[in-house]
Design a protein that fits this description.
This protein is an all-alpha fold and about 260 residues long. The protein has a domain at about 100-200: Cytochrome Bc1 Complex, Chain D, domain 2, CATH 1.10.760. It has helices spanning about 5-20, 25-30, 85, 100-110, 125, 145-150, 160-170, 180-195. The protein is elongated and about 145 Å long.
Length: about 260
């Protein structure tokens, strides 16, 4: 039985259409349709765990970030206001009486006694060799004292009250008993120092505790952080370059 010409033509067209449409058998033989080397699902070598993404050794707790020992409460630094009742002589209270020379001698000894404080300071810590007295120290008491004004709002203060103020503020201790021999002795000794004190021209009204702070020196932890240098992993990622598997133009894309 002979096939009709129309049937033959249909068979031929189907075969050609199969090649053109990428039928498996025909597609494998097409030189322009090789298996795309970029198409296989492979692990991207650049997607591997980045060695630079590991925990930064410089991100470890900074030893210099620990609590700064120099940040401790400075006994002379401005801070909470002093309760003026602690340093104001109660009405009707008088200093202890005694032999003046003996009181002065005891006061001189107590002036350097760190046991009176809770922080290892003594009166002599600030006033060694008559240091840190302002020019107003030469004026008769009561008079204005900057520290008493700053921390207690006191416009003027008596000498024994100033001794008590130093006990409470720089020395971080409790005030002495108002009728104690120790307070009378320190007051008597300081009065003797006052008599020999000579104001200095242009003397700065500096806080005796504002002397050069050893902790104010250049912070060794402030040096350039070696980890802050340019990160070698921040360089241009070779895997971020133009993908060699993404050619701009298909070799088989002929212009129609």
């Amino acid at each position: 039985m002979k096939q009709r010409p129309s049937a033959v033509r249909s068979a031929i067209l189907a075969s050609v259409f199969g090649v053109a449409c990428g039928a498996p058998g025909a597609f494998a033989q097409s030189p322009c349709a090789p298996r795309n080397p970029c198409a296989p699902r492979k692990m991207n070598p650049c997607a591997a765990k980045n060695p630079c993404a590991a925990k930064n050794p410089c991100a470890a707790k900074n030893p210099c970030a620990a609590k700064n020992p120099c940040a401790a409460n400075n006994p002379c630094a401005a801070g909470d206001k002093v309760d003026v009742k602690l340093v104001t002589r109660p009405a009707g209270t008088h200093l202890a009486k005694g032999n003046h020379a003996e009181l002065v001698a005891l006061g001189k000894k107590l002036f350097s006694d760190t046991k009176l404080s809770t922080n290892g300071l003594s009166c002599n810590s600030c006033h060694f060799s008559n240091n840190a007295y302002l020019n107003t120290f030469a004026k008769p008491y009561p008079h204005f004292v900057q520290m008493a004004s700053d921390r207690g709002g006191m416009k003027k203060i008596e000498l024994d009250e100033m001794v008590q103020f130093c006990m409470v503020v720089p020395m971080s201790a409790k005030p002495l008993a108002w009728d104690s021999r120790e307070l009378a002795a320190l007051t008597a000794y300081t009065a003797g120092v006052q008599k020999t004190f000579k104001p200095k021209a242009g003397a700065a009204a500096a806080n005796p505790c504002a002397a050069k702070n050893p902790c104010a020196a250049k912070n060794p932890c402030a040096a350039k952080n070696p980890c802050a240098a340019k990160n070698p992993c921040a360089a241009k990622n070779p895997c971020a370059a133009k993908n060699p598997c993404a050619p701009k133009k298909k070799p088989c894309a002929v212009h129609m």
